[in-house]
Amino acid sequence: MKNFKVAILGCGTVGGGTAKILRSREAGYFAAPGIKLELARILDKFPDAASARHGLPRELFAGAGAELSAEALEAETRAILDDPSIDLVVETIGGTSEGLLATMLAVLGAGKHLVTANKAMLAAHNGRIFAAAAENSRAVGFEAAVCGAIPVIKGINECMTGDEITSVSGIMNGTSNYILSNMTRKGLSFAEALKGAQAKGYAEADPTLDINGGDAGHKLLILLKIVFGIEAKVGDFPVLGIDAITADDTGFAREVGAVIKLICHARRENEGVYATVRPMLVREGNVLSDIDGATNAVSLTGANSRGNVFIGQGAGSLETGSAIVSDIVFIARYGRDAMREYPAGGIPLLDFDGHEMPYAVIFDTEDVPGVTGIVTTAIGAEAINIDTVSHNLRAEDTPGALWAITTKPCTMAQIKRAVDSVKRSTPRAFLAEPKIIPILH
Ligand code: HSE
Question: Which of 44, 93, 189, 400 has the CB geometry, 3.0–4.6 Å to 50, for a possible disulfide?
């Protein structure tokens, strides 16, 4: 019987959940015939507090005292790297510092496998990390980095390898989905819904990356690599958040039988891949329209399978820990072979403005005769086919008119040109910048 020894760096929410699952199963659980998982060491800056918080034995934690100094943390990290009996290191520290990247590369350089939940680091440096894994014949597990407990990475790498995935659409950030769900279902404003998410513990004290789409963008960037072989960098495709969405917008969506969701979207066309993260209208009947609260969902369309939808918990201690432990088990069984190679596919990312989709456009205009005519004439002049035109959505005693159209498939570029043409011909027509929101189809 070989013990497959694991060390965990960082015992916060996810590291703690991982440790608890490993402890609960290590006595009786065999990863594979002849292999037994063993949680050998945990390193955390605050070992006393982490041990108490997660109910883990203090002796599992490296270092003495309530708080480890920077020197002690470095020495204990080195001790783990130098310990030949440790087979795999879990990184659940988070962040994208150069120091942490160096540690992750050093784990692989020391001949140990690496499992990480760090989507921001993988978004920034997956090329270097995967190259170090290849050089050292070790594996990197990152199931937990994309949608927590949901087996989307293994679903793509192992279960859908017989398919050609043509599109990915998903709700990949639970915090923003919780906020949008409450705006839709309860008619709350963005600020009220955000406060509720923070009170429930979904949103971080600093929820910037959840709200501005950054966290979802990191996940889509990782999926672009494993689905399409695209080496994207943050900023290579447009990422918008949910902070500009109002109760009026969610109300309008309801009127056309849809809900607004923060959607990660990538679609392969002949010449390349369109990718974006942004609020989209999702019509009732599309499974993503029913994904409420902090739940995540990833819908993959395949040329052969036609498609699969993965739904589950994208965050949480035991939830995300379960994905990390699955990676550990997989790597204990298969070693380097647990990891796929990700050759660059040579497919370019395309300018999202050229992607044909149906759109909703929400206009805030002067409330004067002929204004809808001016706007819809400009839309028609761009050969955009209008599907529906709403009534004035604004309360009677409030100045201005809030109204919206939906279109048949057209491009964002066409709509922007129409809007620019109205601005030139009738500079006072718009009281605010029109909101151009794709409709997922
Ligand atoms: N903060 C993320 C979410 C989970 O709200 O879904 C970690 O990426």
Answer: 44
- Indicate which CATH number applies to the domain containing 51: 3.40.50.720
- What is the DSSP-derived secondary structure letter of residue 286? S
Both 58 and 102 in one domain: the answer is yes
CATH number, domain of 186, equals 3.30.360.10
Task: Indicate whether 343 belongs to any domain.
Answer: no
Tokens of 182: 């409450």
Domain holding 281, by residue range, is 158-313
Q: Is the CB of 210 under 6 A from ligand 1?
A: yes
The reply to whether ligand 1 has any atom less than 6 angstroms from the CB of 92 is no
35 and 125 together in one domain = yes
Q: Pick the residue whose CA is nearest to atom 7 on ligand 1.
A: 315
CB neighbourhood size of 316 (10 A)? 17
Q: Is 319 in the pocket of ligand 1 (CB under 6 A)?
A: no
Same domain, yes or no: 296 and 266: yes
- 221 and 290 together in one domain: yes
CB 243 within 8 A of CB 214: no
C-beta neighbour count of 409 within 10 angstroms: 15
CA of 111 to the centre of ligand 1 (A): 31
Which of 210, 211, 296, 319 for mutating ligand 1's site (highest number of atoms within 8 Å of CB)? Answer: 210
- How many domains does the chain fold into? 3
Q: Where are the alpha helices (DSSP H) in 231-316?
A: 247-255
* Same-domain check for residues 135 and 172: no
Q: Which of 219, 225, 261, 435 is catalytic?
A: 219
Q: How confident is the model at residue 330 (pLDDT cuts 50, 70, 90)?
A: very high
The DSSP bridge pattern shows strands 86-91 and 2-9 to be: parallel
Task: Kindly report the length of the chain.
Answer: 441
Ligand 1 pocket, mutate which of 198, 215, 264, 291 (most atoms under 8 A from CB): 215
Ligand 1 and 136: CB distance under 6 A: no
pLDDT tens digits, 52-99: 999 999 999 999 999 999 999 999 999 999 999 999 999 999 999 999
124 and 80 within one domain: yes
Question: Is 112 labeled as catalytic in the residue annotation?
Answer: no
